[in-house]
Fold:
Amino acid sequence: MIMALDQVDVDKLEEQESSVTEMSFLDHLEELRWHILKSLSAIAVFGVVLFIFQEWMFKTIVFGPTKGDFITYRVLCGLSKSLGLGDAICFTAPEFKMQATTFGEPFVTSMLVAFWMGLVIASPYILRQIWLFISPGLYDKERKAARGMVTICSALFMLGVFFGYFVLAPFSIRFLVGYTIPGVTNIPTMSSYLNYLIMFTIPIGLVFELPIVVYFLARIGLVTGNDMRSYRRHAIVVILIVAGIITPPDVVSQMMVTIPLYILYEVSIVIAKRVAPKEEEDDDAPKALPQG
Structure:
């Protein structure tokens, strides 16, 4: 009876191993191709819809931070008055005109805006496709540990994009437009405005994925909470450099990026400690003195 049970377990094990190694390299490439096609199809669908309604897209979203009734400016003015500060922190959008310098720039810009906005909207579906491609190669324990990862990644990415759009973009646009050189008229092109708006949103969304990256690095043992604590000063310097690269050279914009990035770093330390609690406890525990 015991031998029969053992044989059943062995058969189940062999069946699981054969199911894992059933797909060949070409099969994996084919599977990857289908996931890529599905992701591109989602981007295309959202992009086409946005391109059809491009008048609303440009007026409401793309040029939103340039208008005086943008929600960020209204919230700041309301906060300033409620705190009794008058108009101390009541900012308004600067008035400026944009220009198209090439023959097909309006059309190309419309296509690019539709693509990037379609990418942002379809990002949860794209992350889902990535997970569906990766998850079959994981063990059941690893799949359970990563449960809800798609939702968390999507939420962090969208949070970063919203932060860049509603917080970073208005202050950065105000600074860049207001910075002038004597004798030079600042008339930005439509493509340059779009490039800066993309830089203020999508890279910030990727940076907000830091806790997820640390989670996987801690799972495979490349980083620990103790390591991240010991390199905290170095991390602050790196964060300041990153903030200086992706923001205009004004202190307000750089601090608005530095503070959330530092908070994410501290959250990542907590995540790294919880992923490998035994190793952390062993490192933090006082070592016994040798006897004799």
In short: The two ends are 54 Å apart (CA to CA). Residues 238 and 244 are 10 Å apart (CA to CA).
